[in-house]
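[step 3/7] fold_predict: job queued, chain A
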Amino acid sequence: MHIQNYMEEMVNREIDSVLSLSNSGCSCEQCRTDIAAWVLNRMPAIYVVSDNGRTYSKLKEFDYQLKAELTVRIVEASNIVAKNPRH
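[step 4/7] structure written:
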Protein backbone atom coordinates (compact mmCIF):
# COMPACT_ATOMS: atom_id res chain seq x y z
CA MET A 1 0.00 0.00 0.00
CA HIS A 2 1.23 3.51 -0.72
CA ILE A 3 0.64 6.70 1.27
CA GLN A 4 -2.90 7.96 0.89
CA ASN A 5 -4.89 10.88 2.29
CA TYR A 6 -8.05 9.24 3.62
CA MET A 7 -9.66 12.68 3.90
CA GLU A 8 -9.93 12.68 0.08
CA GLU A 9 -12.27 9.69 0.20
CA MET A 10 -14.32 11.26 2.98
CA VAL A 11 -14.59 14.54 1.06
CA ASN A 12 -15.63 12.85 -2.18
CA ARG A 13 -18.32 10.77 -0.46
CA GLU A 14 -19.64 13.79 1.40
CA ILE A 15 -19.68 15.88 -1.80
CA ASP A 16 -21.93 13.22 -3.34
CA SER A 17 -24.23 13.40 -0.35
CA VAL A 18 -24.38 17.20 -0.11
CA LEU A 19 -24.82 17.81 -3.84
CA SER A 20 -27.61 15.24 -4.05
CA LEU A 21 -29.53 17.20 -1.40
CA SER A 22 -28.80 20.64 -2.85
CA ASN A 23 -30.04 22.23 -6.04
CA SER A 24 -27.50 25.02 -5.98
CA GLY A 25 -24.66 25.06 -8.44
CA CYS A 26 -23.32 22.63 -10.96
CA SER A 27 -22.30 19.06 -10.21
CA CYS A 28 -20.13 18.45 -13.27
CA GLU A 29 -16.72 16.82 -12.81
CA GLN A 30 -14.85 20.15 -13.04
CA CYS A 31 -16.99 21.79 -10.34
CA ARG A 32 -16.80 18.69 -8.12
CA THR A 33 -13.01 18.72 -8.43
CA ASP A 34 -12.88 22.44 -7.58
CA ILE A 35 -15.11 21.86 -4.54
CA ALA A 36 -12.94 18.95 -3.38
CA ALA A 37 -9.71 20.95 -3.78
CA TRP A 38 -11.16 23.93 -1.86
CA VAL A 39 -12.34 21.69 0.99
CA LEU A 40 -9.16 19.59 1.16
CA ASN A 41 -7.08 22.76 1.52
CA ARG A 42 -9.07 23.62 4.65
CA MET A 43 -9.40 20.22 6.35
CA PRO A 44 -6.70 18.26 8.19
CA ALA A 45 -5.09 15.47 6.20
CA ILE A 46 -5.54 11.90 7.42
CA TYR A 47 -2.65 9.93 5.93
CA VAL A 48 -2.67 6.12 5.93
CA VAL A 49 -0.05 3.64 4.75
CA SER A 50 -1.56 0.30 5.83
CA ASP A 51 -4.86 -1.53 5.97
CA ASN A 52 -4.83 -1.18 9.77
CA GLY A 53 -4.39 2.58 9.44
CA ARG A 54 -7.20 2.67 6.91
CA THR A 55 -9.53 0.79 9.27
CA TYR A 56 -8.63 3.12 12.13
CA SER A 57 -9.20 6.18 9.92
CA LYS A 58 -12.66 4.95 8.96
CA LEU A 59 -13.64 5.44 12.60
CA LYS A 60 -13.18 9.19 12.10
CA GLU A 61 -16.27 9.10 9.88
CA PHE A 62 -18.30 8.62 13.07
CA ASP A 63 -16.90 11.84 14.58
CA TYR A 64 -19.96 14.09 14.36
CA GLN A 65 -17.93 17.28 14.80
CA LEU A 66 -15.63 16.36 11.91
CA LYS A 67 -18.60 15.36 9.73
CA ALA A 68 -20.39 18.63 10.51
CA GLU A 69 -17.28 20.68 9.71
CA LEU A 70 -16.84 18.75 6.47
CA THR A 71 -20.45 19.41 5.45
CA VAL A 72 -20.15 23.12 6.23
CA ARG A 73 -16.94 23.38 4.18
CA ILE A 74 -18.55 21.59 1.24
CA VAL A 75 -21.55 23.93 1.29
CA GLU A 76 -19.19 26.94 1.43
CA ALA A 77 -17.11 25.56 -1.44
CA SER A 78 -20.21 24.74 -3.47
CA ASN A 79 -21.44 28.32 -3.15
CA ILE A 80 -18.05 29.75 -4.12
CA VAL A 81 -17.67 27.44 -7.12
CA ALA A 82 -21.26 28.13 -8.23
CA LYS A 83 -20.48 31.86 -8.33
CA ASN A 84 -17.20 31.31 -10.20
CA PRO A 85 -17.49 28.18 -12.38
CA ARG A 86 -14.47 27.37 -14.54
CA HIS A 87 -16.44 26.02 -17.49
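[step 5/7] annotate
The longest helix spans residues 64-83.
The two ends are 35 Å apart (CA to CA).
exit 0
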